[in-house]
Design goal:
The chain is of the alpha/beta class and about 200 residues long. The protein has seven helices and seven strands; from the N terminus they run E-H-E-H-E-H-E-H-E-E-H-E-H-H. The longest helix has 19 residues. The termini are far apart.
Length: about 200
Amino acid sequence: MTLWAIVPVKPLRRGKSRLAGTLTEDERTVLNQELLERTLKTLSPLKELDQILVVSRDPHALTIARNHGAKTVQEDGQPHLNTALARATVVAQVHSTQGVLILPADLPLLTADDVLTLIDRAAKPPVVVIAPDRHGKGTNALLMVPAGLIEYDFGENSFQRHCERAKKAGAKLEIVELPSLGLDLDLPEDLEMIRKLEAEKV
C-alpha cells in the first residue's frame, strides 16, 4: 500500500492563539515551529510512509517542511482547513497514492509507534482509521484507504461526524485511542499537562 501523510500547519505566528494568555506571540511562534519540526522528524524515518506533504499558507513553515524532505502545498484564498486538506489529498491522488494519513502538527507526544499503530489498523480497505482527542470529541488523526473515501469535516466535535461519514461510505471503521495521540496542544491546561509529563521524565 502506498501511503502519504498530510500535515496541515497554521501560520506559525498565528497558531495556538488560545495560549495567548500563557505564552507571548514569540513564544507561541517558537512552540509552533518546534511542534512542526518534531512531527516531521517523527514521520520522516518511517518507511511505511511514501511521502509527507505539508499544507500551509506560511512560507516559513513550508521552507521548514522542504528542509525535512517533505512536499508542500501553498494554501491560498480564505483559510479553511477542510478545503486545504481536500486540495492536498488531490495532489496525493495525482501521484497515485492509495491512502492518506491526516496528522496535525500539534500532537506533542506523537511517536513513530503511534503512526505504525494507525497504519496497522488500515488493513482490508475500504477503511477509515480515526484517533479521537482525549475528550472523545475532536479528530487527532485520520487515515483512509482509498484516499478521498470520505469528505473532511474537521472542527469542533469532528470525531463523531467522521465516524458517521465512514459508516455511510461503507468503510470499515477503526478507532485508535492512545494517550499520546489523544493529547493535542490547544489550551493552557494541555500545556500544563505536557510540562508535568516532561518534568516526570527528568
